[in-house]
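okkk here we go again. third time trying to get the zinc ion bound version out, last two times i messed up the smiles copy paste (missing a bracket lol). double checked this time i swear
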Amino acid sequence: MLTTTHLLAAVLIGLFLNLNKDEWFVALTFGVAIDLDHVLAAPRYISDNGLAAILRPSWDDGSGLPWRSLMHYPVAAFVVMPLSIGWRYFVPLLFWSTHLGIDYIQSATLAYSSPVEIVFMTACIAGIVFLVYRRWSDLRPDADFNQFVSHLNGSLRASLKGCGVSIRQFFGSI
Ligand SMILES: [Zn+2]
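finally!!
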């Protein structure tokens, strides 16, 4: 699936488990960043199939050439499993196997991959909004969803403004 879908799924699980900073880093490495192997395979794939082929749901072009690293195959459990020992919730194994599970569902439903992906993404986003809202409203027992939306709006604007300021400062200093 799209890397954004993997990211949404990882964020949803991470929020649900209330991960700490270190756990987030490991979760995103094993749950999302393993897709970086596609970047390595991309030059060969694009020169054989054309740029538009990037959007194909599967990069298996029948050439037999690898487009995914071993991290995308169950055999990598031998690497991930030992690394998971000592982590709460076995974080590396949990997020890596979720990534593989999502990719498996996708290859099993290849013909319907866009609708499946849209439904899955929507469900993840709904879950993320629900978890963030629940956490926010726990601290403000008498606030409602409208207030939550305007709070989000406000903090989004504030962070965009913050980005704008740092970009200006950056370019001002060179
Ligand atoms: Zn993947």
